[in-house]
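Final report, results section. Input specification for complex C-07:
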Amino acid sequence: MIGQAVLEPGLIVSSVLVMWKTLILLTGSESPVVVVLSGSMEPAMYRGDILFLNMGKAPIRTGEIVVFYLDGRDIPIVHRVIAVHERANGTHVDVLTKGDNNHGDDRTLYNKGQEWLHQQHIMGRAVGFLPKLGMVTIVLNDYPYLKYALISVLGLLLLTNKET
Amino acid sequence: MFSAKAVYGNSARLRDGKVQTMHSIWHRANSSLTFFGTVAAVLCLLTTGTDFFHESNPSVSLKLHDVRRLVQHHGSKEHAVVTFDLDADLRDVFSWNTKQLFAFVQAEYETPENRINQVVLWDSIIQQKPPRPPPPPLLRRGDKAYIRLNAHKTKYAFIEPGRYLRNREVNLTLVWCVMPRVGAMYTQQRVLPAGKLP
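Structure output:
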């Protein structure tokens, strides 16, 4: 009985993990699905929208909506590329981004002294979009007691499941 | 609806002694929710699929109007102050699944240091307009998808990180990113050579 109570949730968790990791491999991006957290890309994207990301080998070009992380910070930022300077030998690229809804470019966001983003900062490009479905994760993050309540309810349902 | 049978289901003891519950509220809610989710997902895929068949060929005329200044900037860079003329009719690009267009004008050029340089000079967000009878020609000015700009100043500075702008061949490109209500985004562009900078 105890074995079953441990195995069932364990199986569910590991199958979700396998599916997530496969998605990471297929899209080449470390976070293939993100939720938009700020209003800096309105009216294209609002807080709570879900973005599908793909990295791919194609070079970064202007107009693309990219997700990037700045050194030392672990919140992803989703903005549009507005300038690209790619070296003649192709080894290096300077990228400048800007949120559609922001007045100026992202240099105010970058780290001190940093003028450009480079390939290693960029985690993926937005290729698809689902409106508003990510609001759940934002609400769960803003009100952590909701998260604990949800996990407890799910755990309870699993343990009291009468089906064999 | 909330009797014990409805909530916990009918129990039936099968031949091998296992107990199986059927038709409880949870089962019904579970199947309805799953069905709803599946139908919604299929509808989203079909909706974004219709964009695949949407064709448009907007007319675009884009050229450099004049170059007002080309000066050194912050030491090692160059700054060009230019104006441009843009005539573009992007109304046909909208499909029923299009939420908005993000249109921008960029300068593209090649230098000995950088084989690709793209600098966005101007952008505009064009939202889907509700359907209405076509207005008489004079009132067209209200429709943002019909772009007419003359000797327009750039929104963003045209800055080259090196000193390569003098005598440089430049292309001006109008790019429009189609943001769907649901599904896949795509981008189209029109490249128009703009001649040499002084």
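The mean pLDDT of chain B is 84. Residues 24-51 of chain B form one domain. This concludes the modelling results for the funded period.
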